[in-house]
Design brief:
The protein is α+β, with helices and mostly antiparallel strands. It has helices at residues 7-13, 46-62, 96-99, 102-117, 130-142, 164-173, 213-228, 244-249, 255-265, and strands spanning 18-20, 29-33, 36-42, 71-76, 80-86, 91-92, 180-183, 192-195, 198-202, 209-212. The strands form 3 sheets. Strands 1-2-3-5-4 form a 5-stranded antiparallel beta sheet, with helices on both faces. Strands 6-8-9 form a 3-stranded antiparallel beta sheet, with helices on one face. Helix 7 crosses helix 9 (255-265). It is globular and about 55 Å long.
Length: 268
Amino acid sequence: MLDSIPENIQKLITGKQYTSDDIGKSDSTVFLFDDCVLKILVAEDEAVRKKNDLNVQVMRWLKGKIPVPEVLAYESDDKKQYLLMSRIQGKMLCDEYYLEHPRELCRLLADAFKILWSVDVSGCPYERRMDTELEQAKYRVENNLVDLEDAEPETFGEGGFENPEALLKWLEENRPVYEPVLSHGDFCLPNIFAQNGKISGFIDLGDTGIGDKWRDIALCYRSLKHNVDGTFGGKVYPDVNPDMLFEELGIEPNKEKHKFYILLDELF
C-alpha cells in the first residue's frame, strides 16, 4: 500500500520501519513510524474530502496553541487523502499503567481539559453548531446509517427509545444551553497522551473545533467508564470510580447535558 502513496510523502518515509495501528473505529489506514504517522483516508465523497481538508486546517491553526501533531505533508488523489504528521510521544491514557493509577489518570484528564479550555477560540476555522449536528444526525437517521449494535445497551428497546427516529425527536426537543470552548470532539482515553507526568499531546482531531465543553466531558466519562469496566480491553479495574474525574476538574456533574451528548453520539 505504501508504494501507491504520493511521491513527496514517499520521500519522507522511505527506509523507515513502521507498524500499523488498528486502535479506534475509523475506517482510515494508519501507519506508525518512530517520528511520524501516516494516515490514509478513504475520500471518494466530496463532503468527506472537504471535512478532511478542514481538519488539516484546524490542525495547522492549533500549532503552538496545544500539543498536537504537526502536519508534515498533505496530499490527495481521486479516491484517497494522505496526511503525514509528526508523532506524539508518550503513552495513551488507556495504557494499563494509568488504569492501575486512577488518581493520576483523572488528574491528567483534568489537565487535558484545562489545556483545551485555556485556548482563545477566536479565529478557529471550525465550529460544531448544534443546528448542524442535528441536521447531520437527521440525515443519518433518515438514511439508516445509525449502528444500533454500537449503541449503549439501555439506549434503545425496553426502557429506552423505540428507534433512532424517537431519539432524534427527543434531542431536537431537549437542546441544552451552549457553552463554547475549544473542544476535542472525540475526547476518549486513546486520543490523549501523557509523558513524564504531563499531557504530551492530543490525536484524532477530526472533530476538534469550537464546541460545547460538556460534549467532551460526557464522552470522556463514558470512555473512562468503559476502559475500567471491561467493555474495552476485557480487564476490569474495580478500584476505579469514574466520578473522580469531576473531583479533579473541581466541578459538579451536569446530568442533563451528559445525557444529551451521550445520546447525540449514539446517532453517529
